Amino acid sequence: MAFRQALQLAACGLAGGSAAVFFSAVAVGKPRAGGDAELRVVEPPAWAGAARPGPGVWDSNWDRREPPSLVNLRKRNLEPGEEELASRLDHYKAKATRHIFLIRHSQYHVDASLEKDRTLTPLGREQAELTGLRLASLGLKFNKIVHSSMTRAIETTDIISKHLPGVCKVSTDLLREGAPIEPDPPVSHWKPEAVYYEDGARIEAAFRNYIHRADAKQQEDSYEIFICHANVIRYIVCRALQFPPEGWLRLSLNNGSITHLVVRPDGRVALRTLGDTGFMPPDKISRS
């Protein structure tokens, strides 16, 4: 019976839902004397926030940018009338769509002991050129490039930006590589628990800071590029789609790949492409 319940829980989680589902009970195959599997409950990290709606329910206020969340009614002694409230809510409605392009850095020297020495390989530089050409060919008016402050991301950004003249670049530590959350199924040999605890809060902060619907003052659709790392991108995709983020390690991204997220004014999120490298010749594709 417990095993069947575990399967039902897993099915509900994979069906989608909100952040509460992300950190719900996970079944682990540890048989008891009676033969049934014993359930292990994974507690949500402290930075995960309060409970959200249950499985299969899209949280339309996932970014806390629904107009009622932006209006502070307590500023006044008297509550506003219906007309005034409706006007104030309308003032806070997003009007534009955000197009977010998440680029994984190109191939780099993984064996270097110091981070500053983990520079791009010759193949990695070719990959960055191809990614830059691809982005330029889209004919979009990119608003900015935000990139990780790690060496491989900086070098990838420098090469890509040559193909996008005039687009400003911003560096941030929030997008540095790390271990966002303990994956399910677990990989016990990969990272200790303390690493997830430290990196997870930072990568979650990157998600909250950069992935949300447009500001109400934004009148035109925006096209933004974020150049960072596989773990960060995979976690962001799961969070944005309200999929269980523990599944991030099940996704795979090639070097120099393009992932395209769309965040609409009503908070709906769509994934246009995930890890696209179809613009690269087969002999130029790698995942290291």
UniProtKB/TrEMBL annotation:
EC assignment: 3.1.3.16
Matching Gene3D superfamilies: Phosphoglycerate mutase-like
Keyword entries, A-Z: Hydrolase, Necrosis
Superkingdom classification of source: Eukaryota
InterPro entries for the chain: His_Pase_superF_clade-1 (IPR013078), His_PPase_superfam (IPR029033), Mito_Ser/Thr_phosphatase (IPR051021)
Keyword flag Ligase: no
CDD domains: HP_PGM_like (cd07067)
A UniProt-annotated Pfam family: His_Phos_1
Similarity remark: Belongs to the phosphoglycerate mutase family. BPG-dependent PGAM subfamily.
Protein name per Swiss-Prot or TrEMBL: Serine/threonine-protein phosphatase PGAM5, mitochondrial
